[in-house]
Amino acid sequence: MYYDPIKKTLGQVFNRTPWLRRLFYHLLDLLLLRTWHVHRELRRWAKGRTQEPLNILDAGSGYGQYTYWMSGLSDKWHILAVDVKEEQVADSNAFFRQIGRRNVQFAVQDLVLYQEPNSFDLALSVDVMEHILEDVEVFRNIHASLKDGGMLLISTPSDQGGSDVHDDGETSFIEEHVRDGYNIREIQQKLTTAGFERVEARYAYGEPGQISWRLSMKYPILMLGKSRLFFILLPFYYLITFPFCLLLNWLDARTVHDSGTGLIVKAWK
Q1: How many other CB atoms sit within 10 Å of the CB of residue 70?
Q2: What is the pTM of this model?
Q3: Which GO biological-process labels does this protein carry (predicted)?
Q4: How far apart are CA 171 and CA 168, in angstroms?
Q5: Torsion, CA 91, CA 93, CA 99, CA 101, rounded to 10
Q6: For residues 245 and 251, what is the distance between their CA atoms, to the nearest angstrom?
Q7: Largest CA distance in the chain
Q8: φ, ψ for residue 263, nearest 5 deg
Q9: Which has the higher per-residue pLDDT, 186 or 9?
Protein backbone atom coordinates (compact mmCIF):
# COMPACT_ATOMS: atom_id res chain seq x y z
CA MET A 1 0.00 0.00 0.00
CA TYR A 2 1.22 3.52 -0.84
CA TYR A 3 1.14 5.63 2.32
CA ASP A 4 2.10 9.04 0.85
CA PRO A 5 -1.34 9.83 -0.68
CA ILE A 6 -3.00 9.17 2.69
CA LYS A 7 -0.40 11.33 4.47
CA LYS A 8 -1.01 14.12 1.96
CA THR A 9 -4.77 13.99 2.57
CA LEU A 10 -4.26 14.11 6.35
CA GLY A 11 -1.92 17.07 5.92
CA GLN A 12 -4.49 18.95 3.85
CA VAL A 13 -7.16 18.41 6.51
CA PHE A 14 -5.05 19.55 9.47
CA ASN A 15 -3.15 22.38 7.71
CA ARG A 16 -6.26 24.54 7.50
CA THR A 17 -5.57 26.41 10.75
CA PRO A 18 -2.68 26.55 13.23
CA TRP A 19 -5.03 25.21 15.92
CA LEU A 20 -5.84 22.11 13.84
CA ARG A 21 -2.16 21.52 13.12
CA ARG A 22 -1.26 21.72 16.80
CA LEU A 23 -4.06 19.25 17.54
CA PHE A 24 -2.71 16.95 14.83
CA TYR A 25 0.76 17.03 16.36
CA HIS A 26 -0.58 16.16 19.81
CA LEU A 27 -2.62 13.27 18.41
CA LEU A 28 0.44 11.92 16.60
CA ASP A 29 2.48 12.20 19.80
CA LEU A 30 -0.05 10.04 21.62
CA LEU A 31 -0.87 7.52 18.91
CA LEU A 32 2.54 6.85 17.36
CA LEU A 33 4.57 4.56 19.60
CA ARG A 34 7.85 5.64 17.98
CA THR A 35 7.16 9.13 19.32
CA TRP A 36 7.06 7.80 22.88
CA HIS A 37 10.49 6.21 22.42
CA VAL A 38 12.00 9.18 20.57
CA HIS A 39 10.73 11.73 23.10
CA ARG A 40 12.18 9.64 25.92
CA GLU A 41 15.63 9.69 24.30
CA LEU A 42 15.38 13.39 23.47
CA ARG A 43 14.50 14.24 27.08
CA ARG A 44 17.62 12.42 28.22
CA TRP A 45 19.75 14.27 25.68
CA ALA A 46 18.17 17.65 26.51
CA LYS A 47 18.72 17.38 30.28
CA GLY A 48 20.92 20.30 31.31
CA ARG A 49 21.09 21.67 27.75
CA THR A 50 17.94 23.78 27.40
CA GLN A 51 19.79 27.02 28.14
CA GLU A 52 22.56 26.32 25.62
CA PRO A 53 22.46 27.76 22.06
CA LEU A 54 22.56 24.43 20.23
CA ASN A 55 22.01 23.53 16.58
CA ILE A 56 19.76 20.59 15.67
CA LEU A 57 19.11 18.86 12.35
CA ASP A 58 15.75 17.16 11.79
CA ALA A 59 16.82 14.90 8.91
CA GLY A 60 13.61 13.98 7.11
CA SER A 61 11.15 16.15 8.98
CA GLY A 62 7.87 14.95 7.44
CA TYR A 63 4.94 16.78 9.01
CA GLY A 64 7.33 18.62 11.35
CA GLN A 65 5.95 17.22 14.62
CA TYR A 66 9.37 16.43 16.10
CA THR A 67 10.68 19.88 15.21
CA TYR A 68 7.59 21.37 16.86
CA TRP A 69 8.16 19.34 20.03
CA MET A 70 11.90 20.12 20.22
CA SER A 71 11.42 23.82 19.53
CA GLY A 72 9.06 23.93 22.51
CA LEU A 73 11.79 22.65 24.84
CA SER A 74 14.08 25.64 24.31
CA ASP A 75 13.92 28.84 22.30
CA LYS A 76 17.73 28.93 22.40
CA TRP A 77 18.01 25.95 20.08
CA HIS A 78 18.14 26.56 16.35
CA ILE A 79 16.50 23.74 14.41
CA LEU A 80 16.98 23.12 10.70
CA ALA A 81 14.37 20.66 9.41
CA VAL A 82 14.98 19.22 5.93
CA ASP A 83 12.82 17.11 3.65
CA VAL A 84 12.60 16.33 -0.07
CA LYS A 85 8.94 17.35 -0.40
CA GLU A 86 8.69 21.01 -1.40
CA GLU A 87 5.00 21.43 -0.57
CA GLN A 88 5.47 19.99 2.92
CA VAL A 89 8.46 22.25 3.57
CA ALA A 90 6.52 25.33 2.43
CA ASP A 91 3.51 24.41 4.62
CA SER A 92 5.75 23.87 7.64
CA ASN A 93 7.60 27.18 7.21
CA ALA A 94 4.26 29.00 6.99
CA PHE A 95 2.93 27.28 10.11
CA PHE A 96 6.00 27.97 12.24
CA ARG A 97 5.98 31.64 11.18
CA GLN A 98 2.31 31.84 12.16
CA ILE A 99 2.97 30.53 15.67
CA GLY A 100 6.07 32.71 16.10
CA ARG A 101 8.74 30.03 16.51
CA ARG A 102 11.59 31.84 14.81
CA ASN A 103 14.24 29.38 15.95
CA VAL A 104 13.01 26.93 13.29
CA GLN A 105 13.68 26.79 9.56
CA PHE A 106 12.52 24.19 7.02
CA ALA A 107 14.44 23.58 3.79
CA VAL A 108 14.26 21.28 0.78
CA GLN A 109 17.27 18.95 0.85
CA ASP A 110 18.19 15.45 -0.30
CA LEU A 111 19.90 13.64 2.57
CA VAL A 112 21.98 11.60 0.12
CA LEU A 113 23.61 14.87 -0.99
CA TYR A 114 23.17 17.25 1.95
CA GLN A 115 26.14 17.99 4.16
CA GLU A 116 26.92 20.93 6.46
CA PRO A 117 30.32 20.16 8.05
CA ASN A 118 30.66 20.49 11.84
CA SER A 119 27.37 22.35 12.27
CA PHE A 120 24.99 20.36 14.50
CA ASP A 121 24.95 19.15 18.09
CA LEU A 122 22.13 16.69 17.42
CA ALA A 123 20.65 15.03 14.34
CA LEU A 124 17.30 13.27 14.37
CA SER A 125 16.10 10.72 11.80
CA VAL A 126 12.68 9.23 12.52
CA ASP A 127 11.29 6.61 10.11
CA VAL A 128 13.42 7.93 7.26
CA MET A 129 16.20 5.45 6.56
CA GLU A 130 13.83 2.70 5.44
CA HIS A 131 12.95 5.01 2.51
CA ILE A 132 16.54 5.64 1.36
CA LEU A 133 18.57 3.05 -0.52
CA GLU A 134 21.89 4.89 -0.14
CA ASP A 135 21.84 4.72 3.64
CA VAL A 136 25.61 4.68 4.26
CA GLU A 137 26.01 7.86 2.21
CA VAL A 138 23.37 9.52 4.40
CA PHE A 139 25.11 8.32 7.58
CA ARG A 140 28.42 9.74 6.29
CA ASN A 141 26.80 13.09 5.50
CA ILE A 142 25.20 13.32 8.94
CA HIS A 143 28.47 12.30 10.61
CA ALA A 144 30.30 15.07 8.74
CA SER A 145 27.55 17.55 9.64
CA LEU A 146 27.73 16.84 13.39
CA LYS A 147 30.12 18.60 15.70
CA ASP A 148 32.58 16.51 17.70
CA GLY A 149 30.57 14.82 20.45
CA GLY A 150 27.32 15.30 18.52
CA MET A 151 24.68 12.57 18.53
CA LEU A 152 22.48 11.00 15.85
CA LEU A 153 19.16 9.53 17.02
CA ILE A 154 17.40 7.10 14.67
CA SER A 155 14.02 5.36 14.77
CA THR A 156 13.51 2.76 12.04
CA PRO A 157 11.89 -0.66 11.48
CA SER A 158 13.87 -3.79 12.39
CA ASP A 159 14.18 -7.06 10.52
CA GLN A 160 12.15 -8.78 13.25
CA GLY A 161 8.86 -8.02 11.52
CA GLY A 162 9.31 -4.32 10.76
CA SER A 163 7.10 -2.98 7.94
CA ASP A 164 4.83 -5.94 8.85
CA VAL A 165 7.14 -8.41 7.05
CA HIS A 166 7.44 -11.72 8.90
CA ASP A 167 8.43 -14.24 6.21
CA ASP A 168 10.78 -14.27 3.22
CA GLY A 169 7.88 -14.28 0.76
CA GLU A 170 6.17 -11.21 2.21
CA THR A 171 6.63 -7.62 1.10
CA SER A 172 6.51 -4.39 3.08
CA PHE A 173 3.14 -3.10 4.25
CA ILE A 174 4.30 0.37 3.12
CA GLU A 175 5.33 0.23 -0.54
CA GLU A 176 7.51 3.35 -0.31
CA HIS A 177 9.97 1.38 1.87
CA VAL A 178 13.16 0.30 0.08
CA ARG A 179 14.03 -2.16 2.88
CA ASP A 180 11.81 -4.12 5.23
CA GLY A 181 13.93 -3.37 8.28
CA TYR A 182 17.46 -3.32 9.66
CA ASN A 183 19.25 -6.13 11.41
CA ILE A 184 20.47 -4.58 14.64
CA ARG A 185 24.11 -5.51 13.97
CA GLU A 186 23.82 -4.34 10.36
CA ILE A 187 22.87 -0.78 11.24
CA GLN A 188 25.52 -0.62 13.95
CA GLN A 189 28.15 -1.73 11.42
CA LYS A 190 26.96 0.77 8.80
CA LEU A 191 27.14 3.63 11.31
CA THR A 192 30.64 2.56 12.36
CA THR A 193 31.65 2.43 8.69
CA ALA A 194 30.31 5.96 8.30
CA GLY A 195 32.69 7.14 11.03
CA PHE A 196 30.67 7.09 14.25
CA GLU A 197 32.82 6.18 17.25
CA ARG A 198 30.11 4.76 19.53
CA VAL A 199 26.78 3.19 18.61
CA GLU A 200 23.98 1.94 20.87
CA ALA A 201 20.88 0.16 19.56
CA ARG A 202 17.84 -1.35 21.23
CA TYR A 203 14.55 -2.87 20.15
CA ALA A 204 11.19 -1.09 20.35
CA TYR A 205 7.74 -2.31 19.35
CA GLY A 206 7.70 -5.47 21.43
CA GLU A 207 4.45 -7.40 21.84
CA PRO A 208 2.46 -4.47 23.33
CA GLY A 209 3.76 -2.12 20.65
CA GLN A 210 2.93 -4.46 17.81
CA ILE A 211 -0.69 -4.72 18.95
CA SER A 212 -0.86 -0.94 19.33
CA TRP A 213 0.58 -0.42 15.85
CA ARG A 214 -2.04 -2.62 14.28
CA LEU A 215 -4.86 -0.84 16.11
CA SER A 216 -3.59 2.72 15.71
CA MET A 217 -1.91 2.58 12.28
CA LYS A 218 -2.30 -0.55 10.16
CA TYR A 219 -6.06 -1.03 10.31
CA PRO A 220 -6.93 2.68 9.85
CA ILE A 221 -4.50 2.96 6.90
CA LEU A 222 -6.02 -0.14 5.29
CA MET A 223 -9.49 1.34 5.70
CA LEU A 224 -8.44 4.71 4.26
CA GLY A 225 -6.71 2.92 1.40
CA LYS A 226 -10.02 1.32 0.48
CA SER A 227 -12.00 4.56 0.50
CA ARG A 228 -11.62 8.14 1.72
CA LEU A 229 -15.13 7.78 3.13
CA PHE A 230 -13.52 6.05 6.11
CA PHE A 231 -12.31 9.51 7.22
CA ILE A 232 -15.87 9.98 8.47
CA LEU A 233 -15.72 6.79 10.54
CA LEU A 234 -12.18 7.33 11.81
CA PRO A 235 -13.08 9.45 14.88
CA PHE A 236 -15.52 6.77 16.06
CA TYR A 237 -12.94 4.03 15.48
CA TYR A 238 -10.35 5.89 17.59
CA LEU A 239 -12.93 6.64 20.26
CA ILE A 240 -13.01 2.90 20.92
CA THR A 241 -9.35 1.97 20.35
CA PHE A 242 -7.54 5.08 21.66
CA PRO A 243 -7.49 4.11 25.39
CA PHE A 244 -6.11 0.65 24.56
CA CYS A 245 -3.42 2.17 22.32
CA LEU A 246 -2.32 4.55 25.06
CA LEU A 247 -1.96 1.73 27.57
CA LEU A 248 -0.06 -0.46 25.10
CA ASN A 249 2.27 2.40 24.15
CA TRP A 250 2.97 3.12 27.81
CA LEU A 251 3.82 -0.54 28.43
CA ASP A 252 6.07 -0.80 25.38
CA ALA A 253 8.00 2.38 26.18
CA ARG A 254 8.76 1.11 29.70
CA THR A 255 9.80 -2.42 28.79
CA VAL A 256 13.20 -3.76 27.71
CA HIS A 257 12.59 -5.92 24.64
CA ASP A 258 14.71 -8.89 23.54
CA SER A 259 13.21 -8.44 20.09
CA GLY A 260 10.86 -6.00 18.41
CA THR A 261 9.73 -4.67 15.06
CA GLY A 262 11.40 -1.30 15.63
CA LEU A 263 14.89 -0.04 16.48
CA ILE A 264 16.02 2.97 18.47
CA VAL A 265 19.65 3.76 17.62
CA LYS A 266 22.03 6.37 19.04
CA ALA A 267 25.42 7.12 17.49
CA TRP A 268 28.06 9.64 18.58
CA LYS A 269 30.74 11.39 16.57
Answers
A1: 22
A2: 0.90
A3: methylation
A4: 8
A5: 150
A6: 10
A7: 51
A8: -125, 140
A9: 186
